[in-house]
Amino acid sequence: MRLWVLRHGEAEPRANSDAERRLTAHGREQVLRSAAQLLGCAPQVILASPYVRAQQTAALVHEALGLDKPVQTVPWLTPESDPQQVIAELDRLGVEQVLLVSHQPLVGTLVCLLEHGHRKDPAPMGTASLAELDGDHPLAGLMTLRSLTPP
After folding, report:
1. Coil, strand or helix: which one is 7?
2. Which residues contact 18 (CB under 8 A, 6 or more apart)?
3. For residue 99, what is the domain's CATH number?
4. Structural domain count of the chain
5. What is the pTM of this model?
6. In Å, what is the CA distance from 45 to each residue of 2, 14, 93, 118?
7. Is the pLDDT assigned to residue 76 strictly greater than 90?
8. Cβ atoms within 10 Å, residue 36
9. Mean of the pLDDT values across residues 132-142?
10. What is the number of other CB atoms lying within 10 angstroms of the CB of residue 105?
11. Which of 1, 103, 115, 124 could form a disulfide with 79 if both were Cys (CB 3.0 to 4.6 A apart)?
12. Which residues form a coiled coil (predicted)?
């Protein structure tokens, strides 16, 4: 399995709620730079948090890659979601190439858990950072971090 984990681009600091924060112009540019890293290795599915900034990020990547299959919104990719639940959901998917679009602290903790088997040292994922992992199965401690790239 190949898994990409993308943190949303820079978002406006305030909105009516955290879930409603939108990408800034700089955030959109960041996302497009990260999307360029995925050219030639397109995921089979893009899964995104329901938060606006993650939806906008996923839509920009989807368009940049020219994918046919629409972005899927899932409730288990919000900032405070449990990384163990994300791993269980990925295992149930049975898909070989997946892009997750989500938020801190989830993305950093998830990458650490998949690579090291613990949550003690979350990956440093700034806005629009892209992590690439691979392994036979999406299991804690059994995936290899191939790259962690800022936009």
Report:
1. strand
2. 51, 79
3. 3.40.50.1240
4. 1
5. 0.97
6. 11, 30, 10, 26
7. yes
8. 12
9. 93
10. 15
11. 103
12. none
Cis peptide before 105 (omega within 30 of 0): yes
Residue (of 81, 76, 70) closest to 46 by Cα position: 70
**Region 79-99 average pLDDT:** 95
Q: What is the rounded CA–CA span in Å between residue 119 and residue 70? A: 31
Query: What is the C-alpha radius of gyration for the chain, rounded to an integer number of angstroms?
Result: 14
For residues 62 and 85, give the distance between their C-alpha atoms in angstroms, rounded to a whole number. 24
Residues linked to residue 5 through DSSP beta bridges, in sequence order: 100, 131
Q: Which candidate, 1, 8, 69, places its Cα nearest to that of 34?
A: 8
Range of the structural domain that residue 115 is part of: 2-149
Contacts of 68 (CB under 8 A, 6+ apart): none
C-alpha span between 141 and 4 (Å, rounded): 16
Which residues does residue 73 pair with via DSSP β-bridges, in sequence order? 48
Which of 94, 79, 78 has the alpha carbon at shortest distance from 137? 94
Integer Cα distance of 102 and 135 in angstroms:
21
Closest CA to 3 of 32, 43, 63, 35: 43
Q: Hey, which residues does 46 pair with through a beta bridge?
A: 99
